[in-house]
Amino acid sequence: MRKKCFYLIVFLSLFSHFALATAIGESLKSLPVQNRGRVQPFDTFARDSLRFVYGKTLFNKRPAVDVLVSWVLLPEYWNETEFIQVRDSALRKALQLDLQKTLFSPKTLLSNKNFIQEVAELRVRQQNKEPLDDYFKSVQKLENRLLIYQAFQKGEIPGWVPSSVRDSDNRGQTEGKSWIPLSRLKEGSEEKKLFQKIVSHYVSAVSLQEQSSPQAEKARQELGKAVEGFKEQIALKYSTYKDDLSKISTELHYNKLNPFRLSWIFYLLGFLLLFLHSLFRKKFVFYISLFVFGSAFFMQGYGMLLRSLIMERPPVTNMYETVVWVPWVAVILGTVLWLRQKVFTVFACACAVALFCLLLADSAPTLLDGGLEPLEAVLRSNFWLTTHVLVITMSYSAFFLAFAIGDVLLFLFLRDRKKGVDREKVRLHVKCIDRSIQVGVVLLAAGTILGGIWADYSWGR
Q1: Structure confidence by residue, pLDDT tens digits, 67-114
Q2: Which of 180, 178, 199, 196 is nearest to 188 (CA)?
Q3: Nearest residue to 157 via CA among 57, 65, 49
Q4: How far is CA 205 from CA 77, 210, 216, 458, in A?
Q5: Coil, strand, or helix at residue 160?
Q6: Cis-peptide, bond into residue 327, ω within 30° of zero
Q7: Is the pTM of this model over 0.85?
Q8: Around Cβ 206, how many Cβ atoms within 10 Å?
């Protein structure tokens, strides 16, 4: 007990400076874990968990990896900290919580009698297989947030060691089905010793983080060696997972780069350059803006390529990926129409669509979950994902582009109607709208037919 109190005092004194631990937690990001049936870096698990519980991937500018580790090392602190989000105002009212706040502490929620009653009612509805309305979906989501927080503190998630490691609690699981969480690792096993070594070196590195002494640098190096030793133990002993482990570096690169955020920043910069071009009429500014738009387009495509390599499927399986994919195709179509019809406004409209969609995807993580999730069994067909789903979503791109061009054309008409509308300009814009709709209808028809064939293939007539 005294030892626990000592560590608690040490970490509480250091927590105000926890932002300095970023370089320390960096080595933990590459640890392989299994969650929801997929092997992933601990960095991804930490980001997804913190995003679901708190709504963001950073807490007071602290990385998700360091935050989750502190959940275990500082349970008393986090039980009192307001970080569990409750966004539904009806739920806050029912639980008699402060309506002006959206974040609450685990202690406040777990001791709330109204919440306990609502969870009991949720259980009854689930047992009776009743459809859940929006209110009880919010109750279920809040319960899941608390369960994730508690399960990680207890070492019940994620899986850290492949299931071929047998222990008395493993209950005969076969290799390749699941990974064992920390709470079920056998005491004295090699993997548990290696993990305890990681935790020990992490504690030492954090306690020395403000020092530039040789001891502090040695503690960081020892932590890195311990992490590498743990990864090598898994990679060497379990050849089944070498393919999964090889994707860890790709996924870490994707997490660190955040290509879709960079992409919308480039699109926004391109529009600022176009604005400068309209003021000063300098051709080189126009060409620079085109280069920036091109960089945004390729960064967007690179992000989708990384997601495809990590998940081994086309990046069009959820709403987030659709919102990212649709504007990318719209930019391609807008570029083709610009080159054929000589109407630069069409290309600008396509880039505006991309800016809007990427900004929406990046700024609303609670609405558009960007996590890399395994597919449902019925969707696990790369052939049909590539044919039906890609074709259908490409039709969305064409229709969205037509919508954007129509908005711009309406603006031009209202602006110029007093001094006279340029009929040739209107004709060219209408022609581009017509072409976009034609492309969209053809793709939508083809996608619908392919969807019917897929349904017959999956379920029969």
Answers
A1: 999 999 999 999 999 999 999 999 999 999 999 999 999 999 999 999
A2: 196
A3: 49
A4: 20, 9, 6, 54
A5: coil
A6: no
A7: yes
A8: 25
